[in-house]
Design the sequence.
């Protein structure tokens, strides 16, 4: 596999991962997940016009996650509905359309322009990566 991997166009990305992509620092659940996530992040940094389909379900990033069971996330006993609720909140607050197609640049701008400090604290405060996440740090530390 190349450094950036070979991903579909558009890449199916769950809404809350639009935040995670921006804050990714190379940490993950295991080396396979880290490598896969790094490939997606690298591709999007190189190609801001690459198309994404914003969804509220298991996506391309989840495909290498050890917590993925079928179409569900079982991290910390979370039900798929808890993660889908997080995605729905991001979709609503960032003014995105579920299943909408966006360039990475446009999706990133919508997220960054519409998710204020309070929204980010609400969305990300329980995330295990928030102390390392550049997105969270940038939005919450002044």
Sequence:
């Amino acid at each position: 596999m190349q450094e950036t991997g070979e991903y579909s166009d558009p890449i199916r990305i769950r809404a809350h991962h639009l935040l995670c992509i921006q804050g990714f620092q190379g940490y993950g659940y295991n080396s396979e997940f880290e490598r896969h996530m790094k490939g997606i992040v690298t591709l999007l940094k190189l190609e801001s016009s690459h198309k994404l389909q914003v969804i509220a379900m298991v996506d391309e990033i989840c495909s290498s996650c050890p917590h993925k069971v079928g179409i569900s996330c079982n991290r910390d006993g979370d039900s798929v509905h808890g993660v889908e609720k997080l995605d729905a909140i991001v979709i609503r607050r960032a003014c995105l359309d579920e299943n909408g197609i966006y360039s990475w640049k446009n999706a990133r701008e919508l997220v960054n322009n519409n998710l204020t400090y309070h929204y980010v604290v609400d969305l990300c405060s329980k995330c295990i990566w928030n102390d390392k996440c550049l997105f969270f740090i940038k939005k919450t530390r002044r």
Observations:
- The first strand starts at residue 11 and ends at 14.
